[in-house]
Amino acid sequence: MVLKIKSDHTLSSLWPSVKFAARALGLPPRFLPSLSCGAFVLRQYNRSPSTKIGGRSYDCSSDCADLNPYFSRCNSLRVHNGCWILYEHPNYKGHQYYLRKGEYPDYQTWMGYNDSIGSPRMIPELRGCFRIRLYERGDFGGQTMDFTDDCPNVYDRFPFNGIHSSNVQDGNWIFYEEPNYKGRQYYLRPGKYKGYSDWGASSPRIGSIRRVDDI
Q: What is the pTM of this model?
C-alpha cells in the first residue's frame, strides 16, 4: 500500500520532493513511494469534485480492513487492475460495491448510496467454470436451480419468493437486489450460505446475478 498526497500539481512534478522527504525520514528503499504499484486508488476532494482542488489519494494493492486512518469519504476512484469489493464501513460491513478496472468520477458511478467508504477487498482470480445453486428456502431447502452464466432477471427463471440460501460451487459471483444488475450488491465467493444474512443481506430479495469473470 502507498499513501499519496495530491495537489493541483501532477505527481511527477512532486516526485523529487517526495523521495527527498522519504529519505530524510530514514525510510529504507522498500518503503519509498511508488507511482505505479497501486492497483486501486481512492481520491478525496476537499471541495466539490468538479473543481478538482486540493485532493488527497490513497493507493491500495491488497485488502484493507479500515480506511478511516486515511479518510472515510471518497468522491472519485480509479481501479488500475483487478476486481474489488468496496464496503461502506470498516471490517467489510455495510453496503457493498463491485468495482472493475476503470475510472469512477463520483460515487453514483459505482452505484454508491453515499460517499462513505470503510474497507476494500480484492476479489481473487479464479479461472475455470462457474456454477451456483440457488435455494427457495433457508438451510438449503425447497426448490433449487443451478446457474452457470449471468442472469439479468432471476425471477424469469426462478419464480419463487426470494433466494434464502445458496451454494457457490465454482467462481465468484455478485448478487443484485433488483433485475438488470441494479440495487444493493452482495459478493459471494465459493462456499455455502445457509441464509441470506450470510452474504450480508437483510432480505432474500435477489433480482439478478453476475459472474466475476473480467479480472
A: 0.75
